[in-house]
Every structure is written in C-alpha cells, then in structure tokens.
Amino acid sequence: MKSIIVLLQNDVGDAEILMRILNDLKNDKNPFGPDKLYLKTIIEKHLPGDKDLLKSLK
Q1: Taking a C-beta distance cutoff of 8 angstroms, is the pair 5, 49 a contact?
Q2: CA-CA distances (angstroms) from residue 56 to 9, 10, 11, 24?
Q3: 19-36 pLDDT, tens per residue?
Q4: At what angle do helices 2-9 and 33-46 cross, to 10 degrees?
Q5: Which of 1, 33, 43, 50 is most solvent-facing, going by the fewest CB within 10 Å?
C-alpha cells in the first residue's frame, strides 16, 4: 500500500485507478483483471525496486 501512496503523492499514473486499488486493498480485496495489470505495469516502470509488491501481483 505504501508504494501506491507514493505513486499518488508523486502524481504518477491514473489517480482514479490507483485510489480504487488502494481502497480495495484497505478492504482486504486483492486487485484483479485490468487493475492488477495496470498496477503491475506502473510499479515495474516507476518503482522497480519494490520486489514484494511485484511478487504479490503474479
């Protein structure tokens, strides 16, 4: 969740999608489908060092 907050604070990516993903995670729902693919793509591009989040998205 911290990585998503960092992306939002740095105005990286689509804020609406990131907020939806963040809210889902706060409600113990895992991202799926297009949201999961979007999150994986944006994390790989902007925060490639976040191996834990990338691992959880596979």
Answers
A1: no
A2: 22, 22, 23, 15
A3: 999 999 899 988 888 999
A4: 70
A5: 33
